[in-house]
Write a structure and sequence with these properties.
Helix content is 73%, strand content 3%. It has 139 residues and is mostly helical. A two-stranded antiparallel sheet has the order 1-2. A hairpin with a 2-residue loop joins strand 1 and strand 2. The radius of gyration is 19 Å and the shape is globular.
Length: 139
């Protein structure tokens, strides 16, 4: 049974190869969907639409509300994609990545999720160590 599943998986990869252009479009879609969710968090916070009558912001659509911890966790992927894009481009295009990074950071901050803030802090410390060249420790 395991062999058959492996063969099916390999066939799926062979039949449907991913091209670089498709991966880039998927990344951009995830990034801008995260920014739109961050803007929605700002809108809900400014109109005092809160999660279960608390001060924590979340995505609330109608009567359905998302958990602020889940909202913060889902905003971390677009944040990390924007951060990697900002670190890999030239200075001229860097300004196009700064505003979405600020929007996503503030949306994570508004959710009040300790796990989201801890993950953001660890992500930023890893990126700062990568840019300074201290990946393997002090040299």
């Amino acid at each position: 049974m395991v062999c058959k599943l492996r063969v099916l998986h390999i066939r799926a990869v062979v039949i449907y190869p991913l091209f670089q252009k498709e991966v880039a479009w998927t990344n951009k879609g995830i990034m801008w969907a995260g920014v739109s969710a961050g803007v929605r968090v700002f809108y809900n916070q400014s109109n005092q639409i809160a999660f279960l009558e608390t001060v924590r912001a979340s995505v609330v659509l109608g009567e359905r509300a998302a958990d602020p911890n889940h909202t913060a966790a889902s905003l971390l992927l677009p944040f990390s994609l924007f951060l990697s894009a900002a670190l890999s481009v030239m200075r001229l295009r860097l300004s196009s990545h700064i505003l979405p990074l600020i929007i996503l950071f503030l949306a994570i901050l508004l959710t009040g999720s300790r796990g989201g803030l801890l993950a953001w802090r660890s992500l930023s410390s890893v990126c700062s160590s990568c840019t300074s060249g201290n990946i393997g420790g002090k040299r």
